Description:
Elements: E1 10-14, E2 23-27, E3 30-36, E4 42-46, E5 60-62, E6 65-67, E7 74-75, E8 81-83, E9 98-99, E10 101-104, E11 107-110, E12 135-143, H1 147-155, H2 160-163, E13 178-183, E14 186-197, H3 200-206, E15 213-223, E16 227-236, E17 249-262, E18 265-274, H4 281-312, H5 325-340
Amino acid sequence: MSVYLKNRWYVAAWNHEITDQPxxxxxxxxxxxxxRDRNGIPAALEDSCAHRYMALSEGRVINxxxxxxxxxxxxxxxGYCVLVPGQKNIPPGASVRCYPVVEKWRYIxxxxxxxxxxxxxxxxxxxxxxxxxxxxxxDYFYVKGNYRLLIANLLDLSHVAYVHASTLGxxxxxxxxxxxxxxxxxxxxxxxxxxxxxxxxxxxxxxxxEDDKVDRWQLINYLEPTHFMIDVGCALAxxxxxxxxxxxxxxxxxxxxxxxxxxNTTHYFWHxxxxxxxxxxxxxxxxxxxxxxxxAEDVIIIETQQDRIKRLGSHKVTVDINADAGVLQARRLxxxxxxxx
Length: 341
């Protein structure tokens, strides 16, 4: 069985990464070259010339085409060879695979599966990343770990008390139970932490005092195969946040999307958005640094797990705990979808 669900949209790059200079990226074990044509429209092709396998990403974009650096063959944005130096005729079959791509939400999305099934309406809603009512900061991590380890990490936030003690965590998070529900191909994991101190990051953005008690929420929406929209925030304790009254606190969205590079490596894209103090550039910079620091801590965890998996393999017996409820549902969902595909 494949380890990937291919007939879905994945993020190939941030939009600013794609220019008229070719960018090489491996997606689900397949070499891909991304570039923009002279109209600024992104394209994604198999990163291997139809002549002698050479990486097109080592070439250049000229005359609206990408040129192979080995013998100068040129391919258009649809993957068809349009020029062979030294001859007039194009050999039959002189083409490379073309992937459907869409630029949306400041991301470049790619469809690794059957092009006939690529429907732009299926692209996940990450409007926070390009909404004038929100300010979003974001970045990219190259992770030496399987994408499913990151799915598990993002579905179980009980780890924040330990991994992110100086940024996102407070003691006792794991003592508050999670509620897991499934809606078609989405999984929702809800945790409310009542009457506890605010974490350091929330004290910074919400002007909470160190001795203030808050009600805090972690509302995770997982959209298969690899997309997360996480509603996080806190408000002064007892002011009605759980009932929808959030005026005495702050709300942010921590959104993440994962694209498998190989079975053991992952492209990890994230953005963190707020809808308050929109003109405060100093706060934006502080949040960018704090969130990047916190997510880099997760990367260390994932890469360490991957190392132990490699070294111990199937000989290691592991167990599940109550906090894994959402993780186990996501695992079953993804397994079933991949098997069906």
